[in-house]
Amino acid sequence: MKFAVVTFPGSNCDQDCYHVAHEVLSQPTEMLWHKEAQDLSDYDCVILPGGFSYGDYLRTGAIARFSPIMNSVIDYANNGGLVIGICNGFQILLEAGLLPGAMKINDSLKFTCKYVNLKVVNADTPFTNECEEGEILNLPVAHGEGNYHIDEDGLEELVANDQIVVQYAAEEENPNGSVKNIAGICNKEKNVFGLMPHPERCSETILGNGKDDGYKIFASILEDVIKRGEQCG
Ligand SMILES: NC(=O)CC[C@H](N)C(=O)O
Fold this sequence. Notes:
Layout: E1 3-7, H1 14-24, E2 29-33, E3 45-48, H2 68-78, E4 82-86, H3 88-95, E5 102-104, E6 112-120, E7 136-143, E8 147-149, H4 152-160, E9 164-168, E10 182-186, E11 192-195, H5 215-231
Parallel strand pairs: 1-2, 1-3, 3-4, 4-11
Antiparallel strand pairs: 5-8, 6-7, 6-9, 9-10, 10-11
Bound molecules: glutamine (GLN).
């Protein structure tokens, strides 16, 4: 399979995503500059990485969503392409309208950087098929604006369509005040996924606290692409 990782001005997790896709998963991976709108149909998954695109001015992701490549990402997603937005990438997906809801500043008003326990709510997505429903993943978060918000009707719709993919495992684990402890959601079609925690920062046991739970997210993507390839013969 082939990954694309988009770099925006201010991205700081793009090389980490490249490393996991290319070195850990051993898949062909290309870096794309945000100014270059292009046909993305050759790629099997586009990664919008974490960071501080445009210095987080206005609102996180609010300027990056006007980057020329975002028109390409929207076309690609609308045609069923897999898109994962991690942290700032999630924020950009919200601002671009590819995922519902909005991000507010953490309720602590502080940038929060720590490991949290996440519960896999939906294991039947291209991004979580290597997990069990209810499984606990331990992943790091690092953000100032991760307080996910959606109105009541929107929340009902997320629940009804199984779009809540990962939640902070308990109220005490919630690092930002997100509604319903939401840490990551997908679109109705399940091909676009955004999450605040950073799976790319813990995909190898050699890193950090020896955990590699993030690997399951990338392995799920690979599994999904292989499976779909087999179905196409
Ligand atoms: N690591 C990230 O992508 C987090 C940065 C993010 N822009 C924030 O809310 O602080």
